[in-house]
Amino acid sequence: MTKKTRVPVKRGAAAHAGTGAVPPLFPRTMGPNASKYVQQVLDSGITEDTVVRFEKAFAEELGVKHVVATPTCTTAMAVLALAFDFNHGDEVIVSPLTDYGSVYGLLVEHYIPVFPDTAPGTVNFSAETIEACITDRTRAILAVHKCGLPNDMDAINELAAKHDIIVYEDCCQAAFTQYKGRDVGTLSTAGAFSLDSEKTFSSDKAGCIATDDDELAESLRFLSYGRGSEEIPHFGRAHTAFGHSHEMSKMSAALCLAQLETIRANVEKIDGTVRRITDGLSGMEGITPLPIPDYVTKYSAWMSSFSIDPEAFSCSGEEFANQVLEAGLTGAGQGKYYLMPAAMTFLQEYVDAGKYPFSQPPASRTYHYSSDTCPTAWAFLENWVRTCSISEKWEDEHADMIVDIVAQVADANRS
User: Which helix or strand (DSSP H or E) is residue 280 part of?
Assistant: First the structure.
């Protein structure tokens, strides 16, 4: 049997290496107190509880009752899935354009992900596309604010209330994006955040969960930090529930504390940058920037992007993206791999093999996972080009450089 060679995907600074027309994402700019807070941990002999300090500070900044810190956003999503305590084979509706980390926790708990299509012309789903996927096994809707662009949460929450199902948010690309003046992550039962080096809120590697639900917060801490354990008199620690060991490190928390002090100013700058790019691209024939709905009052865009009209150009979306990259936009490209029913190839293999939880029972029907199940999303991705991750270091001149490069590539490829 021939062994398959597996090439690991580049992440972090390695994924953003190279020089281009605009300042690269790395090295990241750190909050002015980063060294101070890290030194406090060192000077205390690793007793300074920066984790609790960060949780309290982040909760206050968001205006929520509870924040539970985790090592990553992926582990935050996993702890949430465990805490919801659905039955094996129950369904969770998930945005189809997202990352593996959004779905990982569902599969660990043997829930079944269901992917509606996206709304036309955007990266997010909608109440209309979600409603067609609701069944008697649906227990939750996981809204991913892709690229930092928030979903229309009022409509989604209204739909969920009608069917008595939970809504929660994946805010990993959208820290401090605002929907109608409210921060994402506060618009539903809970919100999970990524605080790793690539994201707008950039530490080394971390995540957290925000919620106003007292019972959920208690369960999250019990199942995350406590590994499902409690003290039994005359015995000691007993693991009375299956749990994890997902707690943010004190060093990560120190960096997160420092970054929290600068994040609002950074997002303010990013909001101006993405709107300037969007305005610049809007008047370009054959180019449609990712629309920014009126309900987006603050746009913490992780990346800017646009779609090309295939009839207007003599090249494909992939060729256009490659030319934009070669012209100096480091990190530019397409994102077909974001379509989870196509990217998670093992899901259909599990279905075909009747592998748990796709066996019947616990599943009550047969599922299908491919690009064909989300035709609107797939057609959108064919002609979608992401420029690069937006940096708080960019000035107006850098936004204008991006617009100029796209214009040059467009003019060179017009039909």
Answer: helix 263-282
Name the token pair of 332.
């530019």
- The number of C-alpha atoms within 13 Å of 176 and in the hemisphere containing its C-beta is 22
What is the domain partition of the chain in residue ranges?
A: 34-261, 263-335+378-412
- Look up residue 158 and give its amino acid: E
Q: How far apart are CA 325 and CA 300, in angstroms?
A: 23
d(CA 327, CA 315): 16
pLDDT of residue 14: 53
Question: Nearest Cα to 173, choosing from 386, 410, 402?
Answer: 386
What DSSP element (H or E) covers 143?
A: strand 138-144
Residues whose CB is less than 8 angstroms from the CB of residue 261 and which lie 6 or more positions away in sequence, other chains included: 31, 32, 33
Using DSSP, state whether 192 is helix, strand or coil: strand
CB 208 within 8 A of CB 193: yes
CATH class of the domain comprising 263-335+378-412: alpha beta
pLDDT at 1: 44
Q: How far apart are CA 62 and CA 143, in angstroms?
A: 18
Q: Hey, what CATH topology would domain 34-261 get? A: Aspartate Aminotransferase; domain 2 (3.40.640)
Integer Cα distance of 70 and 210 in angstroms: 11
Do the beta carbons of residue 80 and residue 209 sit within 8 Å? yes
Chunked into runs of 10 residues, the chain (415 residues) has average pLDDT values of 54 58 91 98 97 98 98 96 97 98 97 98 98 98 98 98 98 98 98 96 95 98 92 95 94 98 97 98 97 98 97 97 95 96 98 98 98 98 95 96 97 95
